[in-house]
Amino acid sequence: MLVLLGFILVFHVATAALLFIATIDNAWWKTEAASTDIWQTCYFNKSDCDDIHVESYGDCIKAIQATMCLSVIFCCISFIAFVIQLFQLQKGQRFFIAGTLQLLSSLSVMIAASIYTSQEANFHSTMVPGNYGYSYILAWIAFAFTLISGVMYMVLRKRK
């Protein structure tokens, strides 16, 4: 049982790290001249970065920023809830609070990545063609990981 709990803790920390990287790092969209994330655009030939202009992206970028931040918050609170429930729950009970928060984190990151995918043509219409960056891919991987860990928490019972 301790090995399983250790695996779950490591899996949860790895998922939180993926969410932090996907939210903060500047690699949602890559071209030969620049890389863009949900916060700013950095040009390779300059040392500075330009903030995203909300007016040109519309409310979609605000929704993406908000839901990615929510996913990180839900994931961190879920980890704290899991640790608290680990010591407070009676034998045989399930980790419903931690699982629910992790599923909310999964839903939030899925919404953010889905909005970004559907609005990608509008976001990058003024840039030369490019490809999705690794932060975008990490966001989708984090979605899968948070979904899996949320289901694991729902199924997991506290045993001796």
Explain what the structure shows.
The protein is α+β, with helices and mostly antiparallel strands and 160 residues long. It has one domain (2-155): Butyryl-CoA Dehydrogenase, subunit A, domain 3 (Up-down Bundle). 67% of the residues lie in helices and 9% in strands. It has a five-stranded antiparallel beta sheet. Strand 1 and strand 2 (34-36) form a beta hairpin. Helix 1 packs antiparallel against helix 3 (59-88). 31% of the residues are buried. Belongs to the PMP-22/EMP/MP20 family. It is a multi-pass membrane protein. Keywords: Cell membrane, Cytoplasm, Golgi apparatus, Membrane, Nucleus, Signal, Transmembrane, Transmembrane helix. The chain crosses the membrane at residues 63-83, 95-116, 136-156.
Class derived from helix and strand content: alpha+beta
What is the CATH domain class? Mainly Alpha
Strand content: 5-15%
Number of separate strands: 5
Q: Mean pLDDT, nearest integer?
A: 87
Gyration radius, rounded: 18 Å
Low-confidence stretches: none
